[in-house]
Amino acid sequence: MAGIEVHSDGVPGRRGGQMQKDMFWNGLHVKWTGDNAIVAPAFVAERKHIDEIVDKFRKTLDETLEASI
């Protein structure tokens, strides 16, 4: 389980909402509350599952940040 906060773009929750949508389309469902992500994999997750979550999270974060520059 982990929590990740992204820096607000000036409107609370807008960046987190966009990240949630982008992650969904990249194959990852993460609960967002405002600009804070709650990552809670299944209790039976193996190392390869955690690696997949981290890879998809990182990919989406990189894509979103590149688009906002």
Could you please describe the fold and organization of this structure?
The chain has 69 residues and is an alpha+beta fold. The protein has a single domain, classed as Alpha-Beta Complex (Aspartate Aminotransferase, domain 1), CATH 3.90.1150.10. The protein is built from 2 helices and 3 strands. It has helices spanning 14-25, 47-68, and strands at 2-5, 31-33, 36-39. Strands 1-3-2 form a 3-stranded antiparallel beta sheet, with helices on one face. β2 and β3 (36-39) form a beta hairpin. The longest helix is centred in the C-terminal third of the chain and has 22 residues, at 47-68. The protein is globular.
Q: What is the chain-wise order of helices and strands?
A: EHEEH
**Major beta sheet summary:** 3 strands, antiparallel
CATH homology superfamily name: Aspartate Aminotransferase, domain 1
What structural category do the secondary elements indicate? alpha+beta
CATH architecture: Alpha-Beta Complex
Helix content: 40-55%
Number of strands: 3
Strand order of the largest sheet: 1-3-2
Shape: globular
**Count of individual domains:** 1
Task: Write down the overall mean pLDDT.
Answer: 91
Count of helical segments? 2
Examine the coordinates and then state which fold CATH places here, giving the name of the CATH topology.
Answer: Aspartate Aminotransferase, domain 1
Task: Give the N-terminus to C-terminus distance in angstroms.
Answer: 30 Å
Query: What would CATH call the class?
Result: Alpha Beta
Strand content: 15-25%
Cα-atom Rg, whole angstroms? 12 Å
